[in-house]
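Minutes, project check-in
Item: structure for the 188-residue chain
Input as provided by the requester:
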Amino acid sequence: MFWARIPVYWGMSEVINESKTTSSLLVQNVNEARQLHGEFDAVISVVSNPGSLKFVHPNHHREFFDDICEDFHWGREPRREHMERIHEFVCKQPEGMRFLVHCQAGISRSTATGLGVLATLGWDEDEAVARLADDHPEGRPFWPNRLILKHFDALLGTRLGDAANRFLAGQPARMLGRLAVSERESVR
């Protein structure tokens, strides 16, 4: 069983399991990751192309796909094999790792990937969503990519998508950025 503890570092979620080992997770955008990556044991980059990564890390997992939320098979969408490789990377890490997860904007791909990492580490879905939402930078929409969540749910047997939907349903549209646009577009 995992439980959350008040973060010691801005934006970092700490996890303590019954054996008292600690893992940390921070979700950021690519510019923040460039500045902070040296403070972490492992970095997971989920960006569109390698050119946006202007830093190196000795324990760096990279996946390249666009921020597409529908499973249209365009060739650049997040696919299950991306999530499988991320899951394998996380599972190979020793306990107590400090993870930095980033995408370009720190809103959609990295948030969903961070939820998948927390689920891999044993977090309850609702607790993972609440923790990342609490740690999300102020003024930045909390909008996890639903296709990434769908792939993690299929891989892990979780219900991250449902947990994210429950959380998002309780938030004012003005705080969610793209939700208000998506709702207007779906009405047309």
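Outcome recorded: The longest helix spans residues 80-92.
No further action items on this chain.
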